[in-house]
Amino acid sequence: MKALLTGGTGFIGSHLAELLLDKSAEIFALVRDPHNLKWLKGLKIHLLEGDLLTIPSLPSDIDYVFHVAGLTNSSDVADYYTVNQQGTASLFKSLHDQKILPKKIICLSSIAAVGPSFDGKPVQESDVPQPITPYGKSKLRGETEALKFKEVYPIVILRAPAIFGPRDKDFLQYFKWIKRGALPAIGSKQRYMSLCYVKDLISALYLCSQKELESGEIFNIGNQNPYSYDEFGELAGKAMDKKLKKVRIPIPIGYLVALIADITGRIKKKPSILNLGKFKQMRQRGWIADMKKAKEKLSFQPQYSLQDAIQETLNWYLKHNWL
Fold first, then answer.
1. Contact present, 249 and 186 (Cβ < 8 Å)
2. CATH: 3.40.50.720, 3.40.720.10, 3.30.565.10, 3.30.160.20. Which one for 2-168+194-224+287-303?
3. Residue 5: CB atoms within 10 Å
4. At a CB cut-off of 8 Å and minimum separation 6, what does 306 contact?
5. What is the CA 180 to chain-centroid distance, rounded?
6. I want to staple 84 with a disulfide (CB 3.0 to 4.6 A). Which of 59, 115, 142, 205 is the partner?
């Protein structure tokens, strides 16, 4: 198997690169800076210098394309569309212009592209998308760019919920709260979310390359059951042997903190983990996705319990002095 990988230096992409190597794949990774490989350093892969908007000459015999590159956090709203929409369009145009005909292209998208769930009803792949943040809107546009080519290439899109695991920095902030003995809660109402451990996600990405699927298929990927923020925090607290005290953050206070972080990020040109877009996502009552389609058509089944996934993530954070 010859695989082209975008986003390989990132959290999810680096895990996928390791899995593909375990499957004896020959990997061609698109990287901006060959001298800053991050988690790819030391791996036996071919480096293609460039980015989604400046794609170099690609091997003509690529079997599979795993497009997992994407921007999840930015101090400039326009950047989301530049990377997630225009970058995806550029990738497909380059494949087409270079007359490369992979067996399948697997694109990683997000539940944010379809929007939150309302009244506790999980969102399905067939639901009309109602994204509420610039990130979600840009991911939806990225899906649209990919699907323009579904008659040319076999394309599969995975919509992931909140992803956590070793190397992730977003959930790290939450773990730091737990380590201090605090269980943060936004507002007075319980909030629920679908989750996916990164190793389950990359298994699903690989599974898509091996299944016969109709071009243009979209799948929600993650745990079958949603969890509340409290449940996740309590399991993390148990893993750290911490007795937790709930810290309620009123929505107006949370909004103010996010606004300040947003403004600071723009001034410093360094995005904050918490910004207005992230806060808007966090204040929703539910980000719950229906996973039945992936189970039926992909035979996808998460291999990690939430407790085991949290423990493995915690162990990695501690080993690398992140926590």
1. yes
2. 3.40.50.720
3. 27
4. 195, 197, 223, 227, 232, 235
5. 27
6. 142
Rounded distance between C-alpha atoms, residue 140 and residue 204, angstroms: 20
- Torsion angle, CA of 167/171/173/176, rounded to 10 degrees? -90
Whether the predicted model's global pTM rises above the 0.90 cut:
yes
Cα-only R_g, the chain:
19
Q: Compute the distance between CA of residue 195 and CA of residue 200 in angstroms, rounded to an integer.
A: 10
Are the beta carbons of 28 and 45 closer than 8 angstroms?
Answer: yes
d(CA 268, CA 232): 32
pLDDT tens digit sequence for 53-62: 999 999 999 9
Dump pLDDT digits (tens) for 126-153: 999 999 999 999 999 999 999 999 999 9
User: Measured between alpha carbons, how far is residue 244 from residues 136, 187, 270, 313 in Å?
Assistant: 32, 17, 32, 19
Domain ranges of the chain: 2-168+194-224+287-303
Instruction: Give phi and psi for 164, each to the nearest 5.
Output: -135, 165
